[in-house]
């Protein structure tokens, strides 16, 4: 599927694609949750995946991270075939994700959560020595907590946090280490209008080399933080284009925007 | 070991709640100093039976139980194998070192025997752990119970290595530094030192990257994989690490009894370790030692009490069983949980403004 509709960013093309999905199919029994999906995303590209519930968006994320093994197809991450890799090997190569329903460690503090995320993509995961207070990873974790505005609650248990704060922590976990590509699964779900504005700021101020795919029902958020859009329907790629083209497409409006969403 | 030694604030959950200007020694609550003093001074007042049998067995059982607390409390993996691992380490001391069964025992020196015993037990724990971590919940318990039962029957039926039913006797600790380590006072301090080492190690490691990640694996394995952790490898490593505490307890146990036989590692012993850990409370490593103390006290003194009321002395397990039932029903986090709630209730009688008692 061609990407000719997306605005080109010369200079980044020679790096190859950040993420390349070729003919990805995921069967659950006889049901094809996603069927023959082919998508290419350039390094640093920011893209939205839209579609109604059951269109296969989250399943697509689970296939990319390796949570679900694909039934057929090839997944390349920065040129490397990662189709057979377990999730942790893909994460160590710079892939990150957030979850639609916050998936955190409720019994640990905010800082411990982020510290674990930083530790997971670095060496000495099995170290028996406690980190010193001047440990580089502790410092990195504190910077990330700061970046998502959670410094005031960094020693609180995550289970005690407000919903919006947990969503922000989700994003901090996905930004740990040196991410090259992030999958955001409905980051704005359940957030207040103010928190949504914060989210847009966080997403748009990510370093330019970090690309992402965002699943989002809120068009105000989704179309402001991406440069290209993939529409999915019934497990297939239905349309690709710039945000403006997708918004104006009569077929898309009939299928999705007119369907009472938003 | 009085219950007073758990006083002080609840263990903080923050790895990075870093030290203030005070050093870590100054942050140890006074109750801990008192408990340490009582434990260190005990040989001045206690008789040999108390030192060797009661306290020695408490520390040994506590070490074996704390290896389960590490796996279950921090890793969410309930294993019934810890007594088998302890027993294997004890057997290795008897087989590789000197014993009364000279036809089998190799009589090697202690500096080969002890590392080999730890290593062989760790290999056993790693292999059985690799099997067990592929299962969850009740199936982990079943598979570890199956391995424990298989090992028990193997030691009973194998005469070439494990000397079958009779096992090994006259297994004595080496005379290091000119000390007879089976002398009650020396053995008491040896067990106290080892138990303190095990306890301190578990507390320290629980806040290390390895321990913290293990708690992450317990709470949310899928997310841990999505953070770059190899969940299976981490669980297997936890089994290997926990074997160190069980092995230490097992080696001290074979020295205390001066013998080891299949009866030491039977199914009921394997279950007793679980009972000890649950009764004490699995949320903190101290629970293993509190549970062990309660278990040993009941085991030692309930026959006398039962006898006084005309019951058979064999019924002490009935009391332990009722106690276990009561703890599981009323305080799922064990005796330590009861203690925490009692302290929280009495703590409320403090004036919130001045901090002074009303």
As a percent range, the share of strand residues of chain A is 15-25%
Radius of gyration of chain A: 18 Å
Low-confidence runs of at least 5 consecutive residues of chain B: 1-19
Taking the alpha carbons of the first and last residues of chain A, their distance comes to 28 Å
Q: Helix coverage percent of residues of chain B?
A: 55-70%
Q: Looking at this structure, what is the CATH superfamily of the largest domain in chain A?
A: P-loop containing nucleotide triphosphate hydrolases
Question: What is the CATH class designation of the largest domain in chain A?
Answer: Alpha Beta
The CATH topology annotation of the largest domain in chain A reads as: Rossmann fold
Shape of chain A: globular
User: How many structurally independent domains of chain A?
Assistant: 2
Weakly predicted, low-confidence segments of chain A: 1-14
Largest chain-chain contact? A-B, 42 and 33 residues
Could you give the count of β-strands of chain A?
A: 10
Q: What is the helix/strand order of chain B?
A: HHHHHEHHHHEHHHH
Secondary structure: number of strands of chain B:
2
What is the gist of this entry?
The complex is a heterodimer of chains A (about 260) and B (about 350). Chain A is an alpha/beta fold.
């Amino acid at each position: 599927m061609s990407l000719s509709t997306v605005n080109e960013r010369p200079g980044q093309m020679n790096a190859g694609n950040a993420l390349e999905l070729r003919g990805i199919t995921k069967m659950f029994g006889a049901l094809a949750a996603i069927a023959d999906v082919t998508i290419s995303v350039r390094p640093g590209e920011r893209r939205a995946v839209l579609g109604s519930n059951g269109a296969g968006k989250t399943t697509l994320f689970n296939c990319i991270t390796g949570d679900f093994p694909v039934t057929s197809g090839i997944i390349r991450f920065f040129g490397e075939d990662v189709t057979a890799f377990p999730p942790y090997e893909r994460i160590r190569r710079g892939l990150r994700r957030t979850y639609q329903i916050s998936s955190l460690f409720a019994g640990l503090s905010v800082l411990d959560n982020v510290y674990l995320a930083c530790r997971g993509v670095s060496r000495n995961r099995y170290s028996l020595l406690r980190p010193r207070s001047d440990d580089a990873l502790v410092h990195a974790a504190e910077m990330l907590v700061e970046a998502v505005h959670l410094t005031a609650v960094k020693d609180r248990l995550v289970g005690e946090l407000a919903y919006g704060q947990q969503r922000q922590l989700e994003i901090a976990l996905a930004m740990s280490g040196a991410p090259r590509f992030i999958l955001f699964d409905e980051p704005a779900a359940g957030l207040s209008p103010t928190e949504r504005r914060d989210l847009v700021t966080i997403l748009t101020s990510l370093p330019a080399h970090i690309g992402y795919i965002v699943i989002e029902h809120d068009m105000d958020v989704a179309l402001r933080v991406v440069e290209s859009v993939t529409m999915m329907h019934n497990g297939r790629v239905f349309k690709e284009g710039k945000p403006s083209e997708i918004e104006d497409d009569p077929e898309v409006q009939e299928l999705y925007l007119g369907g009472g969403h938003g | 070991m009085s219950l007073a030694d758990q006083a002080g604030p609840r263990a903080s959950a923050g790895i990075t709640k870093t030290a203030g200007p005070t050093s870590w020694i100054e942050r140890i609550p006074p109750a801990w100093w008192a408990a340490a003093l009582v434990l260190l001074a005990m040989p001045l007042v206690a008789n040999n039976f108390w030192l060797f049998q009661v306290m020695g067995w408490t520390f040994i059982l506590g070490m074996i139980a704390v290896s389960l607390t590490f796996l279950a409390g921090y890793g969410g993996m309930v294993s019934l194998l810890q007594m088998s691992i302890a027993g294997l380490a004890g057997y290795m001391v008897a087989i590789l070192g000197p014993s009364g069964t000279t036809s089998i025992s190799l009589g090697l020196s202690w500096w080969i025997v002890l590392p080999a015993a730890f290593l062989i037990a760790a290999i056993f724990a790693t292999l059985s752990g690799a099997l067990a971590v592929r299962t969850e919940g009740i199936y982990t318990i079943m598979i570890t119970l199956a391995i424990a039962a298989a090992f028990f029957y193997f030691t009973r039926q194998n005469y070439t290595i494990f000397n079958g039913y009779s096992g090994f006797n006259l297994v004595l600790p080496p005379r290091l530094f000119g000390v007879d380590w089976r002398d009650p006072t020396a053995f008491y301090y040896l067990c106290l030192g080892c138990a303190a080492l095990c306890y301190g190690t578990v507390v320290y490691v629980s806040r290390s990257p390895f321990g913290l990640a293990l708690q992450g694996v317990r709470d949310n394995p899928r997310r841990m994989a999505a953070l770059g952790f190899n969940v299976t490898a981490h669980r297997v490593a936890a089994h290997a690490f926990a074997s160190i505490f069980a092995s230490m307890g097992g080696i001290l146990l074979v020295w205390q009894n001066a013998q080891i036989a299949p009866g030491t590692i039977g199914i009921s012993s394997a279950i007793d370790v679980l009972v000890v850990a649950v009764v004490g409370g699995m949320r903190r490593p101290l629970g293993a030692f509190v549970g062990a103390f309660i278990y040993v006290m009941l085991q030692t003194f309930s026959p006398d009490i039962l006898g006084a009321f005309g019951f058979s002395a064999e019924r002490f397990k009935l009391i332990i069983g009722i106690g276990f039932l009561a703890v599981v029903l009323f305080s799922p986090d064990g005796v330590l949980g009861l203690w925490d709630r009692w302290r929280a209730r009495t703590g409320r009688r403090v004036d919130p403004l001045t901090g002074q008692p009303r």
